[in-house]
């Protein structure tokens, strides 16, 4: 159970890192600006708009934490190291 709680915490930290305006929603521009950080986490995105639209499952034009976390789980995105962001890295599993 604790590992699931920690995973949610990690995803929350990742989302908050990308959500520059603190709106609890990711806009396309914030997502594009986060591409270098996502690459550090092991996700190499070549077409940010396409991936953003895939994550935005309800088509609202913004990505919620729920949408982001569902996408991250399907990509097996994992943050390794310090969840406060000092030694973050990630792996995309198959």
Can you tell me about this structure?
It comes from Trypanosoma brucei equiperdum. InterPro entries: Calflagin-bd, EF-hand-dom_pair, EF_Hand_1_Ca_BS, EF_hand_dom. Pfam families: EF-hand_7 (PF13499). The protein has a two-stranded antiparallel sheet with strand order 1-2. The protein has helices at residues 2-18, 28-33, 35-40, 48-55, 65-74; strands at 78-80, 89-91. Helix 1 (2-18) packs across helix 5 (65-74). With 94 residues, the chain is mainly alpha-helical. The chain has a single domain (2-88), classed as EF-hand (Recoverin, domain 1), CATH 1.10.238. It is globular, with a radius of gyration of 12 Å. It has five helices and two strands, in the order H-H-H-H-H-E-E. A hairpin with an 8-residue loop joins strand 1 (78-80) and strand 2.
Q: If helices are DSSP runs of H or I spanning 4 or more residues, what is the number of helices?
A: 5
For the record, what CATH class applies? Mainly Alpha
- Kindly name the structural category: mainly alpha
Total number of beta strands: 2
Radius of gyration: 12 Å
Note the beta-strand portion: 5-15%
Predict the CATH topology: Recoverin, domain 1
Euclidean distance between termini CA atoms? 24 Å
Estimate nothing, just give the exact number of structural domains.
1
Order of helices and strands: HHHHHEE
Strand order of the largest sheet: 1-2
Largest β-sheet summary: 2 strands, antiparallel
Q: What would the principal axes of the Cα set say about the shape?
A: globular
- Poorly predicted spans: 81-94
Query: What integer is the average pLDDT?
Result: 83
Q: CATH homologous superfamily name?
A: EF-hand
- Roughly what percent helix? 40-55%
